[in-house]
Queue: 3 jobs
Job 1
Amino acid sequence: MKRWSLLIFLLLYFRAAIAEDGYRLWLRYDKIVNSKLLYTYLNQVNTIYFPAGTPVLDAARQELLSGLEGLLDKKINTDNNASASSLLIFTKAHAPLNLPALALKYEDLGKEGFYINSTKRSIIITANTDTGILYGVFHFLRLLQTGQSLEHLDITSVPRIQHRILNHWDNLNRSVERGYAGISIWNWHTLPEYIDQRYIDYARANASIGINGTVLTNVNANALVLTKDYLLKVKALADVFRPYGIKVYLTARFSAPIEIGKLSTADPLNDTVKAWWNAKAKEIYQLIPDFGGFLVKANSEGQPGPQSYQRTHADGANMLADAVAPYGGIVMWRAFVYSNASPEDRFKQAYNEFKPLDGQFRANVLLQVKNGPIDFQPREPVSPLFGAMPKTPLMMEFQITQEYLGQSTQLVYEAPLFKEVLETDTYQGGKGATVARVIDGDLHHYPQTGIAGVANIGNDRNWTGHPFGQANWYAFGRLAWNYELSAAQIADEWIKQTFSCDTMLVATTQKIMLSSYEAMVNYMTPLGLHHIMGTGHHYGPAPWITNAGRPDWNPVYYHRADTVGLGFDRTASGSNALAQYAPGMQQRFMDVHTTPEAFLLWFHHVPWNFKMKSGRTLWEELCYRYNSGVAAAKVMQQQWNTLERRVDKERFKQVQMLLAIQVKEASWWRNACLLYFQTFSKMPIPRQYEQPDHTLEYYKGLHFPYAPGNG
Ligand code: BDP
């Protein structure tokens, strides 16, 4: 007997210690350990009525069964008799007879929404469409995974935004631009025959958070993906994703007619060029009838575009839009452009370029705008384009991959950043015109709405390199579906599904996550500093750089430190970028005394002795912020250490080691930046703070020739 109990103990011990490698993401479906909860669920979820028979419904049914079997640790029975079942899943068209009237209007659910209802007798998941059912099933599983009561459910859930898309910056050679999680998950070499299980799990994960589109290729595009051989590979992926409600999109290289079509021009107004794209679209749609369309980076950072032919962005976008329109496709045209030649403040360039084109785009074109005017910096004011183009659907481009946010060595939870942007009032046409209301079409009644996130996914076993990178993928999807969810709520869900429902673990991990964004802003770019990272790889601080390829690639262009002070004057006395905003927004940033300090140096050149709200001078405040950022990173580290017994060994250790790197990198940012800015302020770093452990020359001398993600 004793021996047996020892064996059982050992088995349990090793089970707990078995590596959790992170592959299963938030879809772990391990048996619920809370016995009371398990008992309730077991009573509530018995026999299931779930007529399937279409690829989407089959996928949903399969997910539900395997999810429930894992969570409840029992075999689940299905029954064709609705009245014998306690869990009923059906589309409107297949509602079983004799069902009590449901308090829902199917019209309200649209094409993707779902409704979940529970009474004493049964739980119902219903929708207009198969895809709605798929989303409803995932939501139901989430309720179980996060330990929620199934009593009196009355949930109507409909996405606010139509196109919820991941952008992969993946190259055909499998390198990933700004990818920090291994190489591309698309193995082009073995496609189309070889279907990696990862493609299916990728689709499941996306469907579980409502993502319904994926751009497979880098915006710095390669025309080859549009050739027959590659299109067959793309088709294979599209076939895998379709049952999960996900459409594929490709980046279109504007010069493709020349490169693979052997034409002498790519002029969008040339008839032969138009015919080439029309034929290309036809070819694609013959293979992939639900192909989503194209994403285009044109005339930006060396990419070809219509301006090479003295045509406008609208000319270029419309030509492609016409090619895909007969098949219901869309074109996502990126607003991330800034001219090589123009001496204009880079902040202003996208607006100057696109605002005059409002109203000139076809109905199936969306303009994809990065959240800020520069480039995914730790904290940016919102792009002045939001709200400024009532006749052109603007879609959001967020960056999930942490190019400027600690890459994959740092735990930075991005939901607070996404929320801050979406909730910003643009004041266009008056108060309450939030960015969210711009992009969901509420404000200007856009016919199409969209949101994109630059993916952080690679072929690393845990998908995202840093185990907490998964939370950013998850948060993007959840907010794309419903931007009203709070960052805390999303973290709570994610932690419970990814780790466990242990109260202490959830509370502590949530604290870590929610403090991480502000901590990072403070130790990298406090008070509105921006673009002061290393050149090329963008890893680490380098505010001293003056020799990058062009003026507006240099950190000194952005921080403008001198003996007087710090920051970029974008008011009327400077570049006047402020004038691009609506009056309410201008008001916010106009006066150096009332500008929110988080954005101060974005808009003002502020004297070193300027009195901040805290009573400290600008210089002292800078020292304070950098130090509080480092201190916060250390707190995150201590908090994580308290969780040793509550997290599986493998992920505990991984995160622990990464947090040590994060603290090191935070101190490095602080030391390097303060030493450098000190050469202008000529003021000491107050004694109460930890003093830099090296000289400025030391920090300037650091080089990272093989830092990841740089092509
Ligand atoms: C920048 C990246 C660069 C991308 C570019 C883009 O450094 O690699 O190609 O954005 O969005 O942030 O096109």
Job 2
Amino acid sequence: MRIAMFDSKPYDIESFQKLNNPSIEYTFFEEKLSCKTIKLAEGYDGVIVFVNDNINEEVINKLNEMGIKLLLLRSAGYNNVDLYAAKDKIKVYRVPAYSPESVAEYAMALLLTSIRRTHKAYIRSRDFNFSLNGLVGFNLHNKTVGVIGTGKIGKAFINICKGFGMNILAFDKYPDTSLTDVKYVSLEELFKESDIISLHCPLTVENTYMINKFTINMMKKGVVIINTSRGGLVDTEALVEGIREKKVGAACLDVYEEESHYFYKDMSNHIVSDEVLSRLISFPNVIVTSHQGFLTREALDSIAKTTEENIISYMEGKESSNEVKYQE
Ligand code: NAI
């Protein structure tokens, strides 16, 4: 099998090169897969893509014309693939779980950084500025965290929050009744009662912009919003407004709805024309990172291993629960 891997970064390449399977040959391309770059896939049996490759109908039809029948996502989320267009044309596989702890721990890292101002303190002390003015934070102990989506990552995050002695509210379309010390509530109650809200659900048509002007209005003054899931869950303009009005106390964002234009690239020598992103970054109580919740050695190795298992399932014509299909 000859596989073309798009949006490949040195850390991805390293984990795939370790696999060393003689029947699978990987070629790594830095480019994202799109209509412009699709020619690179000529002659390959399958393509591997990541979260910001936009696999729309046009790309799928072109892959189909090129005889490529295998699309592998190096991610759990598949909102960037038009599954309807892929139906009967190309098999799509994902990596449903690689290391939920990598994202959950990262969400907590962002939260702690934000509320204890360690990013500010670090910069100050490098300049021998040891003043503490403006660095007052708050305890997590006894605070209420609202977790939206209690799947693998949400559960791992809940476990971490339990260790901090937090009260945990949760909302999920399919609540997990086996969870202890967690109170499932309506979304409205979660928005009203939480000091911190962390998003751990996939992006779907029904929950796009679930954090919007209306839901922000319901929230407690000073609420901290953490999004390590998908940018489209948050109406960013409404979030900016919420921060300006001091309704939102802080935001920790590892994802952004327009991230595909910027994330994973060095934009430090460019004029970024996205006013919303620039505004967000300018706020002292917002942390923006470049979709890196997954970026641990354990997670990268697990992504590579499962992707290869997906290729093998395809080669052997085996059913796999990692295959994603269009749901009516
Ligand atoms: P999962 O499938 O184990 O859990 C998702 C949970 O969300 C499920 O319990 C599901 O019932 C629930 N859910 C679905 N629709 C919902 C809705 N409308 N409202 C509330 N809950 C809903 O997925 P997992 O592994 O926990 O991942 C969650 C999300 O995290 C992924 O979809 C992806 O968007 C994001 N992610 C981000 C990464 C990063 O690097 N920042 C890396 C990996 C995943």
Job 3
Amino acid sequence: MVFILAATGATVGLGNIWKFPYLAGEYGGGAFVLVYLLCIAFIGFPLMVAEVAVGRRGRLSPINTLRSLSEIEGGSPRWVWAGGLGVLAGLLIGSFYSVIAGWALAYMFRAASGAFEHVTAQGIASIFNNLITDPERLLAWHTIFMVMTVAVLARGIRSGLERAVKLLVPGLLVMLLVLIGYGASTGYLGQTLFFLFRPDFSSLSFAAVLEALGHAFFTLSLGMGAIMIYGSYLPRQVPIMRTSLLVVLLDTLVALLAGLAIFSIAFAHELPVNSGPGLIFQTLPMAFGKMQAGGVFGGIFFLLLVFAAWTSAIALLEPAVAWLVESLNLQRVRAAVLTGFVAWLLGIVSLLSFSQWAFSFEFAGMQKQHGLFDLFSILASGVLLPLGGLSVVLFTAWVMHRESVLDALGGADGPGFRLWYFLVRYVAPVALVVVFLWVLGVM
Ligand code: PHE
């Protein structure tokens, strides 16, 4: 139970409610969603099982787990680099994650104070623009969120947060259902289902495939060691496959519900679906502004979103903290403060990407408006996480001996294991390499 809660806390976050809808909107819906779901099923789920199994077997921070397991299995000491990559990815994602969580914090107060009541689409757009083009305000929210995260990391006690997750997930599901109910009442649910689930492959670009793949890693917190750490707390007798499946299904459910809610609101009010990172902040307030007791619902929704982001941010920075404690013998408090400070500093770059430092660039035919923020996001989830994931997959399937893997999973050598082993040994690595070659222009 503790593992399920911790892992769900790590996976369900801004990725599901903020990032998935805006990517789906940018890349035209159905085809992107399908690729994302395929990546979850054939790469994400098997990789999550592998990460949990490796973590449980190694029982150290990712870098040292890979070092020690590689030694035992007769592999190269260079596998530690995969752990190092994960630490970097966590810091990079953690930096902009905190900025966006800051937006959610700001919106929590705006919604609760009734700022969205009877507001027009234009009004909403200007509320959003005023926020993101005001670096000082963003810095304040970013700082508050980072301090919240460091406070939990420093104490290394997650029991409070585990209890929070028990309320968080049902709460989020209820709120999303309320929003979907609102969307349905406007009569646009049909169009939304069409948009999300009818793939139009002519709109499927290069960039869309890479981002769908990257987002599968991002939303499941894979390829950077977080799940490995949580796996190291898992008792031996717990079945890894079933537990991971539950976490993956929950995460996917939240994302799809968020998509249904957000797009039905967008269609009902004729708001653009391709407005990028601002999408949820420019659609949801419209619904809260029109609903009965919308201030209360809106306040609760953004509060839940902040919580979801909080439990994820902790997981993002935990690999770095664990490594500092274990390898450099730093006190936990110092390690947490140092990690948080680096991520905070880096976050300022992202924060300025929405105003002073904004520039646009083309990414595989896609116009990106937010300079280094977009670049960080693509670099982290399109490159670092898949590379980290590829390393773990290769390590599990090709470096560890089959018996050790079987033992690490604690299961029997049945059809389930064989199917999974086939996926991690062949399907996932080949798929990842093909995508990389494609992106590099080799294929
Ligand atoms: N999975 C989290 C989300 O969807 C983000 C995250 C990525 C958290 C990697 C931890 C590690 O928001």
